[in-house]
């Protein structure tokens, strides 16, 4: 039984060294998901930088809001541990970017672009929370 999801999980790694094997496998899943998530974030950010002119960093905003919704969806589906490691921790952990969001927010403050800072910060937090909850609720229905 998976304690995170409540679903029955069949594990092939029972016996001696099972914890170490499971930990290594989870690390591989997180690393692979993280690689793909980082690449996806890079491509989305580059696309926005080339195609869209905006005072708000739409690439960062898009990946963060999309990541909120999709992680909520994954949580609502009560995905198994391996999928959570690969997608939740790995892919979405690397796809979304709190550090870039904070850097861009700080740059707005340093440039005294107060209204832009307020719009960007509030939209990131409030819409992100809403989309995470919406994803979770939709996931429960699927």
Describe the structure.
This protein is mainly α and 142 residues long. The chain has one domain. Helices cover 77% and strands 0% of the residues. It is built from five helices and no strands. Belongs to the fluoride channel Fluc/FEX (TC 1.A.43) family.
Brief synopsis:
With 142 residues, the protein is mainly alpha-helical. The chain has helices at 18-51, 58-76, 81-95, 98-110, 114-141.
Write down the secondary-structure element order. HHHHH
Radius of gyration over all CA atoms, rounded: 18 Å
Hey, roughly how much beta strand do the residues contain?
A: under 5%
Mean pLDDT: 90
Major beta sheet summary: none
Which structural category do the helix and sheet elements fall into? mainly alpha
- Shape label: globular
Distance between the termini: 21 Å
Q: How many structural domains?
A: 1
Please tally the β strands and state the result. 0
The helix fraction, in percent, is over 70%
Low-confidence stretches: none
Q: With helices defined by DSSP (H or I, 4 residues minimum), what is the helix count?
A: 5
Helices and strands in order:
Layout: H1 18-51, H2 58-76, H3 81-95, H4 98-110, H5 114-141
Helix pairs in contact: 1-2, 1-3, 2-3, 2-5, 4-5
Main location: membrane
Keywords: Cell membrane, Ion channel, Ion transport, Membrane, Metal-binding, Sodium, Transmembrane, Transmembrane helix, Transport
Catalytic activity: fluoride(in) = fluoride(out)
């Amino acid at each position: 039984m998976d304690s995170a999801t409540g679903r029955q999980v069949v594990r092939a790694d029972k016996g001696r060294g099972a914890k170490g094997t499971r930990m290594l496998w989870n690390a591989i899943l997180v690393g692979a998901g993280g690689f793909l998530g980082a690449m996806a974030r890079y491509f989305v950010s580059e696309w926005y930088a080339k195609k869209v002119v905006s005072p708000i960093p739409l690439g960062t905003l898009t990946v963060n809001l999309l990541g909120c919704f999709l992680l909520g969806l994954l949580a609502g589906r009560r995905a198994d541990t391996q999928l959570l490691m690969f997608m939740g921790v790995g892919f979405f952990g690397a796809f979304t970017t709190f550090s870039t969001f904070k850097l861009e927010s700080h740059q707005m403050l340093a440039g005294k672009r107060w209204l832009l800072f307020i719009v960007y910060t509030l939209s990131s937090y409030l819409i992100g929370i809403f989309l995470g909850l919406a994803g979770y609720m939709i996931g429960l229905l699927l």
